[in-house]
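Supplementary notes (optional reading)

For those who missed the lab, this is the record we used. Protein: SMP-30/gluconolactonase/LRE family protein. Length: 360 residues.
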Amino acid sequence: MVFGPIRRHPVLAAGLVVAGVAAVNRSQESRLDPVGWRAPDPPAMAGALAAGEELSGLDTVVSVDGPEDVAFDADGRLYTGAEDGRMYRTVDPVDDETTDATVEVFAETDGRPLGLTFEGEDLLVAGTGAGLLSVDTDGEVTTLAASADGRPINFADDIYVADDGTVYFTDATVHGRFEDELWELGDTGRLLAYDPDSEETSVELEGLGFANGVVPGPDGESLLVTETSRYRITQFFVDGDRAGEHEPFAEALVGFPDNIDTDGDGTYWVAIPSLRADILDTLHRYPWVIRQLGKLPDSATEIDIEPYGLVVRFDEDGNVVESLHDPDGDVFGVTSATPHDGALYLGTLFGSDVKRYPLS
């Protein structure tokens, strides 16, 4: 459930990459250990992906700094996190006419809240630098999981609670900077499972490319996990004859997939915070160049993306059936599209507004 801010840096301009690499001290150690990859061609922006202006001019429901995801309690109040580590909620319930709602601080965390979901009256929170958290009705924060299989949970990202109470959640990357995962393609993301009875956390699936959103699959026996750095959605089977297996659900996506949600109609809403960055797809073919860039300051590998608002709906077979756009980028960097009472509530990691898109 994370993608970085829009940045423009000259070393990423195609004409200056060679110059940047030439200036590197070849004996210097690189922080990047990339693999080579030829990214699949993106689909054409046509048919169900044809650009429109569906997301233009949407109402602002809540304003905080970086509301990456949202959740609603039984009373209809909206909860979201912010870059400062605080959890906020609306003072009053939210309906289809709410705009610019007043918020209050609900809790404070030691990380940055990302994915949110309610389990009963408690709010479960996945956060960078914090792991898996539970927040009770009084705002008291309890850490449920901070490591798994001897590795710290560095980048807890999204959450799904199964009917048996198991809390599935993603740990996106081993890196502190998400950009390093996108450049390296080390596939260090994991799908984890927290057992509330034993209070233990297990690793269910490794080798994921920036493991991000997680949601139940269409067959009742699997989960869908978005892999941001690999432009795909993976289906992982947790029950049945295929338990433990995984396979692609949708590949060669038009951009970087973030959160994935369903409203129970058999389709899936996937937030796309950015279309692909051409420089990434090009340089992945030349890992030696990326290794040299890893010797430069962090700012040299900030990723140049253009503001574009996009949410894509998939059917149960992984086909695109609808897309919502804002080509002007007034709504941009959409990291979550949460269905609630006939509307989608759109979160963003590096904007400041939760927007509402009416579904009917």
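If you only remember one thing from this example: The radius of gyration is 20 Å.
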